[in-house]
Amino acid sequence: MKTLLFKNTKAFTSSTATQRTSACLIITILLSCLITAVAQGSSFFYSTHYTKVLVLSCFFLAYAGIFFYLKATRRIDENSAVFMMILLGVLLRCAYVLLSGLYDRQHDAGAYTGMGTDFVNPGHIGYIEYIYKFHKLPDLNPYELFAYYHPPLHHILSFIWLQLNIWLGVAEDLAFENLQILTLFYSCLCMVITWKILKVLEIRGNGLYIGLAFIVFHPATIVMAGSVNNDMLTILFMCLIILESLKWLRDKNLAGLVRLALYIGFGMITKLNSAVLAIPLALLFLKHFISVIRSKDKSAILQWIKNYCVFGVIVAPIGLSWIVRNLIRFSEKPGVPVPGETSPMYTAPFSLWSRLGIPAFSDWNFAFPFHPISAKACNNTWVIMFHTSLFAEEYPVDLPDILLVLCQITFVLAVILGIATAILLAAVLLNKRTNREDTIFLLTGYVIMLISFAAFVIIYPYTCSSDFRYVAICLVYIAIALGLGNKYYISPSFRQENDKHAKIKTACMHMINSGIITILAFITIIYVFWERW
Fold first, then answer.
1. pLDDT score at 144
2. Of 510, 485, 483, 22, nearest in space to 213 by CA
């Protein structure tokens, strides 16, 4: 009895500490984003690149000093280590936003001309400006002006933030520049949500640190922190769907269903591909309902029919509202306007194997691992995906030789580790120690995500369709793979198991850990010394 009481007390204390850390992180993220918004309006923002780097370096040195002091005085436990890691991720993202302007490394950004004109501009910025100018959703057919076909939640939130800036007396140009603050906030929240996902899966220690570090320091979410389109908010909702699904699998209550319905619904009116994660969730709903029917408990059956109806009543009106609106008002079905067959990005003339098959060695272009945009130069989806995952759609012409060598090494490691971690994900999810429902949800979700990505590339045959941002949520799955891999294959208990391949698995896991740390270190160095950032 005393042992049970001790365990319950320890679990409660741990839960309280985690909640306290989570609250501190949210407050820190909010303050950091607001400080970044203020800094964008100061003389600092208009100083030279090297001045900015010097000032930001002082902040990172101060951070390093605090970290090593806490380490030396042994004041770092798991929660404080997580706090310090995410704090470093927040600093990196804030620094990136301060070093990047509104039009740097954007996707389908378009432009704005301000309240003083009645121009209707294309792109995500133009979409936001339309709502800002006319205080309503666009009346025009959303497929007639580029980027307006996207569901409007991100653009409405951006308008509210833009309007708040104007009300506070911020100049219009700076208010538009501050649109990056919202995506900065979303990117920072994704780190916290990923930490909670790993905690739900009971990943601790080194597995937690390296899994979280993969999200914190991966360049994709850092670059997207400075974006103005709806990708980052979509990834945030997908992270929340994964977290809430894993929690629901453990609790199976109505409150969890309501939260899931809201996340899926709002995800769909941010970007329709959020609905992809509803497919593995539907399989688990079916599995659970079949088990309820088999119990022959009429009250339980009626209760869960009611619960699932509540879920449907919430998610359908929210998630399908944009589709229904466009069908009724413009007779338009969901889709994406395309550049046309004359675009240099058009990949349809190339074979399906060339686009989606195993890339030839020459396709990778290891000598200059950047995305050339042109389909003639590169049209293989998986190659483009790896290119853009590390370096976005940059194609530098004046990169110093030493940085180019570092980019080449990092890219080769990324390809090797990308394949290795995909195999690791399958291995850990099929491991007998993984909850069966977790396996169904996570493995099915990962596979369907890749299948939907491939289908998207076929339906919209352009090199831009192969950009990593469309599957950036897969980073969370790899973080889970790293966490569970360390939990299963490096723990002392595993080495004591009667597994003749234990040493090989442990060695492979150590190699993957070392490779991931090396990639994250190298890519950070590249970003720091690449003058365009």
1. 87
2. 483
